[in-house]
Amino acid sequence: MTLVSHPVRALRGAVRAPGDKSCSHRALIFGALAEGRSRFAGLLEGDDVRRTAAAMQALGAELEQSGPGDWAVRGVGAAGFRTPAGPIDFGNSGTGARLIMGALAGFDLEADLQGDESLSSRPMARVLDPLRRMGAVSEPADADRLPFRLRGRSTLSAIDYAPAQASAQVKSAILIAGLRAEGATSATEAKPTRDHTERMLRGFGVEVSVRRTDAGDTITVEGGQKLSAIETALPGDPSSAAFLTAAAIISPAGEVLIERLMSNDRRDGFYQAAAAMGAHIGAEEAGEAAGERLIDLTAAAGALRGVALPERLVPSMIDEFPILAVLAAFAEGETVVSGAEELRVKESDRVTATVDMLRACGVEAEERPDGFVVQGCGGPPPGGGLVETRHDHRIAMSALVLGTAAEAPVAIDDASMIATSYPDFADHMRALGADIRHGAP
Ligand code: S3P
Q1: Cα separation, 11 vs 345, whole angstroms
Q2: pLDDT tens, position by position, 304-357
Q3: Which of 91, 219, 265, 283 could form a disulfide with 51 if both were Cys (CB 3.0 to 4.6 A apart)?
Q4: Do residues 200 and 30 lie in contact, with contact meaning Cβ atoms separated by under 8 Å?
Q5: How far apart are CA 255 and CA 210, in angstroms?
Q6: Sorting pLDDT into bands at 50, 70 and 90, what band is 272?
């Protein structure tokens, strides 16, 4: 399905941010492991999270939806996960795949795991290596890419592990498996990554300790801990809200309010970068949800200037580089991104996909092995291109945002992947005044 985004004068209005994808996966997985019935409000109903819901059912949990975003999960508790009747298909979801591998590794079961073409090209050894060291077995034994079979074991060995990548998915898989191991399992991360697993596990009654050392943060869980069911709302997703924020900032008379957004310093790199580039961003406290602070965020048009992005911000905006590149295209001067080689193994090779997106819209940009450089247009870029989305939801949404304020419309070849993380994206954008239409470019 192609979509075309036509330039508009102003994006204005208020939107409730969609539920956070990372927290929604974790809520379902922890709810499924817990004893008792958990209830969640504001759960993201994107395809990725639906895959995780289906996986939890296949492993023995009972799920029930009572309204939009309202879900109840009866966990397996002491009975534990069971061998699923058929293969578990994670679709496009790296988070679902990696976290669930950690979750099922600690049970006596076997599961055939698979994903779509994009997910099947992404590295899984980063999770399988520590899980194999703990006692899980993959078939083939040295599997790295989906599909493969994973055989869990109820007698996992605890490990101390320092993942080679700054990855919350790897850290989380190790800690979740560690809950079923004998003894204390630790993951040490040199650079802090999103900490929703740690926060949410505590909400489910699990003790999680964090020790700061010279090598970084060491996060430890003691094996054998039980999870108890909870009732909670989920916070709004800062990664999805970044698209609305950017649309307001590049709009000639933009002003957008995004309600109930998660504010977590492991996730706010994009907002820090946007402010450093000259965007007007404000925040008001809006309570809390699932152990996360909430804010109502305002974003308004501002004259943007390019930046050399500090590498320390990379993990806290790892999903926001395509949309940061859109801001860079409107800015005066050069924007340089480095230290972001992980972008090469996301839903697409996001370095190449981002640079090609900008070039298709008449913006000068160049790849680097670990990032990219954008020559800003100091105002609206030409637009007028057809952007190849490469099965990547964030490239699709970034290109449509660019089109709202470019000189000519921007088309994307395939909008279907947007449903993986933000099914209401086009509706929310239209409610703010965007002119996004179906049809040929
Ligand atoms: C996620 C971690 C990040 C991020 C992904 C969600 C998570 O991946 O890109 O969208 O929920 O833990 P990595 O751990 O591979 O950096």
Answers
A1: 33
A2: 999 999 999 999 999 999 999 999 999 999 999 999 999 999 999 999 999 999
A3: 91
A4: yes
A5: 39
A6: very high
The separation between the first and the last C-alpha atoms of the chain, rounded to the nearest angstrom, is 11
The CA-atom distances, in angstroms, between 435 and each of 8, 243, 417 are 7, 15, 19
Residue 406 Cα to ligand 1 midpoint, Å, equals 30
Answer yes or no: are the C-beta atoms of 363 and 385 closer than 8 Å: no
Q: Identify the residues whose C-beta falls under 6 Å from ligand 1.
A: 22, 95, 167-169, 172, 194, 318-319, 342
**Residue of 195, 217, 319, 392 marked active site:** 319
Distance 440 CA to ligand 1 centre (A): 33
Protein residue with least CA distance to atom 9, ligand 1: 319
- Residue pointed to by tokens 């296949």: 58
Q: Whose CA is nearest to atom 11 of ligand 1?
A: 22
Distance CA 429, CA 10 (A): 11
d(CA 144, CA 123): 6
Query: With 70 as the cut, is the pLDDT of residue 185 above it?
Result: yes
Chain centre to alpha carbon of residue 423:
14
pLDDT digits (tens, 9 = 90+) for 410-441: 999 999 999 999 999 999 999 999 999 998 76
Tokens, residue 23 = 């927290």
Question: Whose C-alpha lies nearest to ligand 1, atom 4?
Answer: 319
Q: How far is the CA of 195 from the centre of ligand 1 (A)?
A: 11
- If you measure from the C-alpha of residue 193 to the centroid of ligand 1, how many angstroms do you get, rounded to a whole number? 9
Per-residue pLDDT at 439: 80
Nearest CA-CA partner of 219 in 227, 209, 229, 228? 209
Nearest Cα neighbor of 274 from 296, 241, 252 is: 241
Write out the two tokens for 303: 């004259």
Ligand 1 mutation pick, 22, 100, 320, max ligand atoms within 8 A of CB: 22
For a ligand 1 pocket test, name from 28, 167, 394 the mutation site with the most ligand atoms within 8 angstroms of its C-beta. 167
Catalytic residue list contains 265:
no
**Which token pair is 382?**
């030409």
Record the tokens describing residue 62, joined without a space: 């009972």
